[in-house]
Amino acid sequence: MQTTLRSPITFTGVGLHSGAPARLTIRPASADYGIWFKRTDIALGDTMVPARWDAVDASPLCTRIVNRAGTSVSTVEHVMAALSGCGVHNALIEIDGPEAPILDGSSVPFVRGILTRGLRQLATPIRAIEILAPVEVRTDMGWARLSPAEMGQGLTMQFHIDFADAAIGEQTKTLNLANGAFVRELCDSRTFCRASDVEAMHAAGKALGGTYENAVVVDGDKVLSPGGLRHSDEAVRHKMLDALGDLALAGAPIIGHYEGHKAGHAMTNALLRALFDMPGAFRVVLCDPAQAARLPGAGVERHEIPAVA
């Protein structure tokens, strides 16, 4: 059955790119509500922004959603990944500004808050998007693909990255996201950047709220952030975290296999747009108990949150 939170939970911090203070509250919602953001700082006009693939607006370095009135919320990928990875299907997210708080640069603070509050089951079956045929998008930089799941699988993911900095280098990871794997394996992996890119991001008005505490900064073979890495392959794990958050904008859990090769937010959104432009490539199914048990977040418990966070 679909779920929502048992009670509201609030997070405060700063926006990674804007540097502005941010307060975000996740509230329970009814069955089939989906995920919506509400801008509480706007008094007039349409303040509701759907967390949906067709509301994504082109924005470098983060995922930004915008409604028809131009009301927007950016850097939604980490909270969306947490909701998906904890198995939350319905929620109203109130936010008092244009960007979600970055917190520690990962999804683990959101995960901890969600699992501490607990989930309430609703009397409506889960609808999922089952991939029936391969869909792929490519650019000069990389590619992303969705293909049918293997028999008995829910959502599986493979990601490959390759950076010149030796502290990151070439990394590949494959993961079955069933049975709370997101919480155990991915949720504490932080956003990262190269020290050589920081000045250019600042000049472009980006990463103004970034610090060594909410991002992993690397310079060649050195990790400049105190404490070093949480995982030797933290970078590719964070890319998978981002991909799950961006796939959550499909509006329902996905049953299929996602592959990303040097992919980013824009490419994953382009992949969803390609998918929904091919009606024969997917179908919406009502999950039976066996299917629901294989979705991200099914059966996850609070003690599975990584201790490092």
From TrEMBL:
The answer to whether keyword Metal-binding applies is yes
Q: Which Pfam families match?
A: LpxC (PF03331)
Q: In which pathway does it act?
A: Glycolipid biosynthesis; lipid IV(A) biosynthesis; lipid IV(A) from (3R)-3-hydroxytetradecanoyl-[acyl-carrier-protein] and UDP-N-acetyl-alpha-D-glucosamine: step 2/6
Instruction: Name the positions where Zn(2+) binds.
Output: H78, H238, D242
Q: Name one GO biological process term.
A: lipid A biosynthetic process
Does the keyword section mention Iron-sulfur?
Answer: no
Residues at the catalytic site: H265
Assigned GO CC terms: membrane
SUPFAM superfamilies listed in its UniProt record:
Ribosomal protein S5 domain 2-like
Alphabetized InterPro entries for the sequence:
Ribosomal_Su5_D2-typ_SF, UDP-acyl_GlcNac_deAcase, UDP-acyl_GlcNac_deAcase_C, UDP-acyl_N-AcGlcN_deAcase_N
Give the catalytic activity.
a UDP-3-O-[(3R)-3-hydroxyacyl]-N-acetyl-alpha-D-glucosamine + H2O = a UDP-3-O-[(3R)-3-hydroxyacyl]-alpha-D-glucosamine + acetate
**What would be an example GO MF term here?**
metal ion binding
> Which EC number(s) does the record attach to this protein?
3.5.1.108
What cofactors does the UniProt entry give for this protein? Zn(2+)
Name the UniProt key words of this record, in alphabetical order. Hydrolase, Lipid A biosynthesis, Lipid biosynthesis, Lipid metabolism, Metal-binding, Zinc
Give the enzyme's main class according to its UniProt record, as a single word.
Answer: hydrolase
Q: Which HAMAP family does the record cross-reference, listed alphabetically? A: LpxC (MF_00388)
Could you say which protein family the record assigns here? Belongs to the LpxC family.
Provide the function of this protein. Answer: Catalyzes the hydrolysis of UDP-3-O-myristoyl-N-acetylglucosamine to form UDP-3-O-myristoylglucosamine and acetate, the committed step in lipid A biosynthesis.
What's the protein here called? UDP-3-O-acyl-N-acetylglucosamine deacetylase
